Amino acid sequence: MPHIEAVGHQLAETLKKYSADYIEARLEESQSSHITYRGRKLESIGRSTAIGGNVRALVRGGWGFVSFNELDELPGRVELAVKQAQLAGNKESKLAPVEPVVDMVAAEVGKNPVAMPLAEKKQLLDEYNDIIWRTPKLQTSTIGYNDGHKKVIFLSSSGSYIEQEKTGITLRLAAVATKGNEVQQVGLSLGSSGDFSLLQGLHQQVERMANHAVELLSAPQITGGEYTVVLDPVLAGVFTHEAFGHLSEADFVYENDRLREIMTLGKKFGGKYLNIVDSAAIPKLRGSYKYDDEGVPATKTYLIREGKLVGRLHSRETAARMKEQPTGNARAINYHYPPIVRMTNTYIEPGSVSFEDIIGDIKDGVYAKNWYGGTTSMEMFTFSAGEAYMIRNGKLAEALRPVVLTGNVFTTLMNIDAIGNDLEMNQGGGCGKGGQAPLSVSNGSPHIRIRHCLLGGR
Questions:
Q1: What is the DSSP letter of 280?
Q2: CA dihedral of residues 321, 102, 345, 24 (deg, nearest 10)
Q3: Selection from 288, 249, 243, 276 nearest residue 105 by Cα
Q4: Which of 75, 93, 277, 424 lies 20 to 30 Å from 184 when distance is taken between CA atoms?
Q5: CB-CB contact of 277 with 300 (8 Å)
Q6: Which SS3 state, helix, strand or coil, does residue 258 take?
Q7: Contacts of residue 353, Cβ cutoff 8 Å, sequence gap at least 6
Q8: 402 by DSSP, 3-state: which?
Q9: CB atoms within 10 A of CB 201
Q10: How many CB atoms lie within 10 A of CB 132?
């Protein structure tokens, strides 16, 4: 089979021969490995490779899209995409203009984690699983490890030719403890842009995770009601991504009349100290890249600046239709899909308050950590914290059973009255949208304090 570089150069010439408002193609070569455990036993281990590509054509505002697993007969694929677009199109094509780019981008991490022996990775995970199962009263546990290395060639009829390489690793562990009808689960999620060493040396964290699952069986449950709540960087980052970030994706805004009214640029959503950013331009994060899947350079996009809504995330098409600037947020999970508007690394910028000062004047509140699960519906959200602790007279007190936070995202943003100086980015997550999951993203925040936050409990 020919290398995708050779195929890419041939395809660049082919695109020029077809009549369309715009044509682009992506060719992709990837390797990945995975290891999963369920309970004490190894459930699955393996390595895989994939090669393929797609062509997307735009004619009179209509898109045609063809994906393929074989890199032969590419002129026929281009022709089919153009014919699809001709059938779909009946209005004006709109794409925000961008300069054509010719570039080659190597992976940020030098060593490919997929190339490491599976036995070496398994040995580390065996150690973690042994630690989990030294804990009494555990019912079951799960461990899931995945890594990948991908090379993508993007080319367009406007003259772009970009080669990009990217690596990524995720590790998720969970311990489930039971006593009678009581069930408690604690998890740990980590990731990196390819540096395996960040997943090593976690033995104490894994032990604490398993022990905490057992401790929660006898922890008290909070009485439901309004509290002053402090979120740690993980939970605050997930809140930022899930409850607010998705509302900033321009395809969602453009297609929803009610959301367009709510998400009016210039509208006040928080205090002057609140700044929310999405940026793929930060090095060495899982959501980072130099160019998106439309060949648009990565940017740093302020969504909220000094409490006001100032931006949103765009593809070239949504930017043109909303008469705004493209932000480089068109992403596809792999070559089977067309790019859609997606977040990258989404976070609240740090303030100047220490954690001690954030909790220092709270007489009776709750410290919520980590993330267990949740749902969003427009501006309403419900999240389960992975851990929770009472705050009494400015100090952390007893552990609680995990709490559920619920409310309106815009009311909650307005109720943030302190932002810490300790920004941390969580890279253990993956994002789902439009059937494309899990997409590599990261999210983060400093510690934040929210007044009048509704918690579910007894």
A1: S
A2: 50
A3: 288
A4: 424
A5: yes
A6: helix
A7: 418, 419, 420, 421
A8: coil
A9: 9
A10: 24
Token couple for 226: 């309004």
Half-sphere exposure of 257 (CA within 13 A, CB side): 0
Distances (CA, A) of 374 to 235, 238, 363, 434: 11, 10, 28, 18
Residue 109: band (very low, low, confident or very high) from pLDDT cuts 50, 70, 90: low
Residue ranges of domains in the chain, CATH in brackets: 4-218 (3.30.2290.10), 225-456 (no CATH)
d(CA 78, CA 75): 5
What is the pLDDT, as a whole number, of residue 125?
98
- The 10s digit of each residue's pLDDT in 367-419 is 999 987 778 888 999 999 989 999 999 999 999 998 999 999 999 999 999 99
Instruction: Please return the burial class of 252, using the count of CB atoms within 10 Å of its CB with bins 0-12, 13-18 and 19+.
Output: buried
**Under the phi-then-psi rule, with left for phi > 0, alpha for psi from -120 to 50, and beta for the rest, what region is 238?**
alpha
Contacts 24+ apart (CB under 8 A), 116-123: 116/196, 118/33, 118/35, 118/45, 118/46, 118/47, 121/33, 121/35, 121/145, 121/147, 121/196, 122/35, 122/42, 122/45
What's the rounded Cα separation, in Å, for the pair 404 and 113?
37
Is pLDDT of 426 > 90?
Answer: yes
**Statement: residue 1 has pLDDT above 60:** no
- Of 137, 127, 218, residue with least CA distance to 173: 127
Write the single-letter amino acid at 13. Answer: E
Amino acid at residue number 144: G
Contact 431, 242 (CB under 8 A): no
Torsion angle in degrees (nearest 10) through CA of 365, 368, 374, 378: 60
Give me the residue label for tokens 């001709």: 86
The number of residues making up the chain comes to: 458
How many whole angstroms separate alpha carbon 171 and alpha carbon 199? 8
